[in-house]
Design brief:
The chain has five helices and four strands; from the N terminus they run ααβαββαβα. It is an alpha+beta fold and 137 residues long.
Length: 137
């Protein structure tokens, strides 16, 4: 009888175990900071579209042609020995770049999306800053 009682007691014992609940108290500000950080990290990609790679004369012609059709994005001519490249825009999401690429490929079929190196980005920024400075004669 005692063996039966011990077996019954052992089988019932796990039913009386602890059922704990963990409650975490955290500030709502922390949630908003985490959400903002996720949004920023998910969006910032710094993508560009290249529509031309070749000699300077054709690069200037293609750039003028692009500006006549699309005036809503920035255009830069980049020189990488021995070729000139035309870069379009500065897109922060892949979706934004993809939409523009679909539109651009109607006219410029060889266009593609890429992520420029940090040094290349700084060169473009330096060039655009120098354009605003008048030359002294």
């Amino acid at each position: 009888m005692r063996i039966l009682f011990i077996c019954l007691l052992i089988s019932i014992f796990p039913m009386f175990g602890q059922n704990g609940k963990v409650i975490i108290n955290q500030s709502n500000k922390l949630d908003s900071v985490i959400k903002l950080k996720k949004e920023l990290n998910g969006k910032i990609q710094n993508l560009r579209i290249q529509i031309y790679n070749g000699d300077r004369e054709n690069a200037e012609l293609i750039m003028q042609e692009y500006l006549e059709i699309y005036s809503d994005t920035s255009v830069n001519i980049i020189y990488e020995t021995p070729n000139y490249k035309i870069w379009i825009g500065n897109f922060y999401t892949q979706l934004e770049a993809d939409k523009k690429l679909i539109e651009i490929r109607k006219k410029f079929r060889s266009a593609f999306i890429f992520r420029p190196e940090v040094a290349e980005i700084n060169d473009v920024i330096d060039e655009s800053e120098n354009e605003d400075i008048p030359e002294l004669d």
